[in-house]
C-alpha cells in the first residue's frame, strides 16, 4: 500500500467554471483496491469555514484510471448509498472510504456571500549577502496547508542551494465569488 501527495501535472485537479482547488491531490493505493474495512483519508484544505452560514459548496473528486476527474460526493448531500462519507473540520476534511484511489477537494462559492480561501505568501531571498542594489526575490502564493509550504522550501533549498525563507509566511484571506477575487485581507 502507498500514500502520495501528488505534484505532477497529470494529477493536477482541474477547477471547472467557478470552482477552485482547496486541497492537495492525494493518491492512496493500489488504486481501485477494495478494502475489508473502511479507512479514513484526511485531506488538509484552505477553505475558510468560520462563518455561521455556509459559504462553500465543497465537492470531493476522484481521478479515473483514464486520467479524467469525476465527482464523488458533495459535502452535505451524503446518503446511505454514497460511496464514502465526509466529515468537514476547520482545516481538514476526513473521508471515510472503502476504495483506494486519487482524491482532491474543490469548492465553489454559494451566493450571495463570497466564500473565503486561506492563502500564504512566502518570500525567499538569496542566502549570501547582496553587494549590489540588484536583489532577487521569489514570492510564492500558496494554499494555507502544512504541505503547501514544503514544496517551495524543498525545491529552493535542494535545487538552488541559495535561497532562504525571509520570514514566516504572511497569511491572506481571499474572498471568492462567481467572478473570483474580490478582496484580500492580511492577517
Automatic annotation (TrEMBL):
GO molecular function, one term: netrin receptor activity
Positions of the ZU5 domain: 1-109
A Gene Ontology biological process term: anterior/posterior axon guidance
InterPro entries: UNC5A-D, UPA, ZU5_dom
Gene Ontology cellular component terms for the protein in this record: membrane
Keyword Transport: no
Signal peptide annotation: none
Keywords: Receptor
Protein name: Netrin receptor UNC5B-b
Lineage: Eukaryota, Metazoa, Chordata, Craniata, Vertebrata
Gene: unc5b-b_1
